[in-house]
Amino acid sequence: MLLEVRGLGKAFGGLHAVRDVDFDVPEGCVTAIIGPNGAGKSTLFNLMAGFYRPTAGTVIFDGKDITGMQPHQTVRAGIARTFQTTHLFEGASVLDNVRAACVVRSSSNALDAVLHTPRHRRDERRSLDTSMSELEFVGVAHLRDEIASTLPQEAQKRISIAQALATEPRLLLLDEPAAGTNDEETEAFGALIREIVARGVTVCLVEHKMSMVMNLADQIVVLDHGQRIAVGSPDDIRSNPLVIEAYLGADADTTGATT
Amino acid sequence: MTTLLRPRLLGVILIAIAFLVAPMLVSGQPYLLRIVTTAAIYAIAAYGLNIILGLTGQLSLAHGAFFGVGAYIVGLATTDHDWSFWTAFVVAILATTILGYASGLIALRTQGAYFAIFTMALGFLIYIIIIRWETVTHAHSGVSGIKLPESIGPLDFSDPVVLYYLVLLFLAGAAYSTHAILHSNAGRSLVAIRTSEDLAKSIGVNVGVSKQLAYTASAGLAGLAGGLFATLNGFIGADSAAIDLTFQFLLFLLIGGMGTVMGPVVGSVLVAFLFEMLQDLESYRFIVLGPIIVLLVIFAPRGIVGYLNEFLSSHRSRRASPPPGRGPDGRGPDGHSGSGTGQDNALDRPHAASGAAATSEGGL
Amino acid sequence: MTLFIQQLINGLALGGIYCLAAIGLTLVFGVLGFPNLAHGALFMVGGYVTYTLLVDVGLPYVVAIVCAALILAVIGVVFERLIFHPLRNAPHTHHMIATVGVMFFLISLVQEIWGSGFLRMESPFDGRLTVAGAQISSQRIIIIITAMVVLIALTLFLKRSVHGQAIEAIEQDRTGAALVGINANVVSMMTFAVSFALVAISAGLVAPIQLLSPGMGESLSLIVFAIIILGGLGSLPGAIIGGFFIAMAEVMASTYISVGAGQAAVFIVLMAVLAIKPTGLFGTVVQR
Question: C196: which of B280, B360, C76, C222 fits an S-S bond (Cβ 3.0–4.6 Å)?
Fold first, then answer.
């Protein structure tokens, strides 16, 4: 298992946003986390990526305990994430946005830069190569000199995926990659995610668009009120009475904002 | 591609030449040379503030105090304790760097407004220590008779022109380091923090360590500038550690352009001449400068260099909007070999744009 | 024991001053989200304006303070319109830098108008009372009473009036307040007006027991920052409790240890709180 989540919990004050969640993310697969609004999906993501410190439980990544690690440590360990509301360095060019993400795989420091050491030059070359190839991979290489924040939402989403990939992750956490896109674009994102998996990067995503989830996911984890209520293949989940109840109870097709 | 870059390069070369020939231009007017030297020293301190405020986006209000600590160490060590200037100077730089590091350990636990308030308190604390600890610092009577740097070989620093070139050397070093860091992974980490701490974390930037390094380096630069100031002036008082000084550095950055490579030096020199013109107003010059700070921050927060950069970038992107499908191969070997100046330009081009653009969203 | 009671009263009086100044600062932080670094300078301006109204114009003390508060309130509205409203979409660093500019302007302006020397303002209440054997100056009693009255009036304003409720609503939840249709412009102007009026009152109250000087704002500035950080930025109860706590610590440390210790106590509290719990004792800001 690439990622093992055991008894994970997070309480804000007395409120349990996530409680006693167990699941595994098998390598080379797409795992989807679904659930009604406020089910704790985003909190769970933040816990996995080290943005929140869990109040209970453990997260094991590739056999290593990463519970309570800082985000920069989890990124270094090989977990990358995107944000639900697309988050880019406003005002910076597309290339720079992705290039900034190469920092984590570089060994040169400020002194190298000032002294212009071979290590610095090698890192600069490598970061340029990596960013360009990731931009090509997600299909926005032609936009590299544009100012990222002026581009359409769909391009920005692709850039943020390139940015995450530039950190050379083994596990990619996508927070609603298809939010706010039309059907055609959703289809395209689905294809992109398959390509990412084909490259050997395991994908874990939070998504509201059921068609996308059912198409893509090898495994689905269902959360409700911060707790895992089901886990299994898309077919299992479709027929699971608990899931149907949770979704019907909380309004069958919720596509708004999450926690 | 490189021809479009020329205005920027040309600007830097012109500024460098202006500084190199300045002593000839003002020869026979030691007073003017002193003003230029002082402006250059302030510019070094402004480069310090630029690292933490301009690049990293954290408003530190302790920089005047770090400057003062550097000045006082050189001042007291070369007078009361009869050290050589060079020893005192090195100690001053190390001490302010260590002070920056130590205070950063606490200050950087805080963010935003808290960080600004903490550093402001730290600045006041240092200032109060200087005016209260009379037995060591001479409090209000100040320190006089500070040594000039001892000559090194044929370089006799009692000649103001030689001293000027010494200061210029450090200024060039500060400017070059800013340029190098801005165009490196380290610099991109800092700019990432300035733009969005969460996003910086998500791409694996160690926010704590990056900020700590930036703050430490910026304190060290302020201390270095303070040491040079003490030796140039020969006399220092508590006002060389006052928070007013921090605000002056802030003004230099605002006018020149926060987060830019040439901003600090452009701002310092312009303000130095502005101060000269407002000389009749003496201590009341802030009646004019206060509103100028406010107007700048409202209407022109990018500063002169920031706007020039932006102008050049927009000019460039209009003329050279990228043809579709031009991948890394399209860049040719230039972009990849990355040694030598011409090729560096090709590499640096997008960052120069980001420098301008990052300021354009006002993310400082 | 007599000394203790005397210092207790002194501490309460100083605490009243600090509270009024700190509430003004914390209100602006709570509603607008940035610290007004010029707050100390406004305290100074409030003091000088009161002085002029009292000495040069010849108004009675209480009227002078009320007028000074009104004048500062108008200045607050003007500043909000001219400076902070245009900056509303800029990052907070820019607001802070703007307040720095304001601070410099005000300090230089005061030096230009009133000179850089010290001015003495006589208290109209120069009698002394004896409480449990301790000699208490009437001015201090006046300070304590006025501070209480103003605090109660402020609480009523915040709880009862539409504008006051809006200020509180925005302090607690900015986006929520916007959703229920509170006019942010009006609230923002009200906040500056109330904040500047409070700082003027505190300066007018303290002026008779301290001297006026262009530097009087700087030392106060640091103390009120210590208070609102101790109490939690944006927290009103925090500012009140913090104000009395810091005042007591300062008075008691200078009485029983040394004057220097009194000054140091403020710094130690400020640094310690920032280092250990930056959100303050009553902080509502969520930090991860």
Answer: C76
Q: Pairing state of beta strands B235-236 and C128-131?
A: unpaired
Its ipTM equals: 0.81
- For the four alpha carbons of C251, C257, C262 and C268, in that order, the dihedral sign comes to negative
* Residues across chain B: 364
Q: CB distance from B176 to chain A under 8 Å?
A: yes
Provide, as residue numbers in chain A, all residues whose Cβ is less than 8 Å from the Cβ of C285.
Answer: none
Chain B nearest C-alpha distance from A228 (Å): 25
Tell me, what DSSP letter sits at residue C257? T
Cβ neighbours, 10 Å, residue A211: 13
Distance of alpha carbon A53 from alpha carbon A45, whole angstroms: 11
Per the DSSP assignment, residues forming a β-bridge with A6 are A58
Pair A10, A54: CB distance under 8 Å? yes
Burial of residue C86 (CB within 10 Å: 0-12, 13-18, 19+) is middle
CA of C3 vs chain A CAs: smallest distance (Å):
45
> Could you tell me if A228 and A22 are in contact, meaning their C-beta atoms sit under 8 angstroms apart?
yes
Which of C101, C233, C267 lies nearest to residue B291, judging by beta carbons? C101
Of B199, B206, B317, the CB nearest to A89: B199
DSSP C233: T
pLDDT tens digits, one per residue of A2-56 = 889 999 988 887 778 888 899 899 988 899 998 887 788 888 888 988 888 888 8
Domain that holds residue B34: 2-360
Which pair of structure tokens corresponds to residue C247?
Answer: 């005042």
CA distances from residue A83 to A5, A94, A162, A220, B206 in whole angstroms, order as listed:
20, 17, 13, 20, 18
* Amino acid identity at B68: G
**Chain C, nearest residue to B291 by Cα:** C101
> Distance between terminal CA atoms of chain C?
47
Length of chain A: 259
Which amino acid is located at B178 in the chain? T
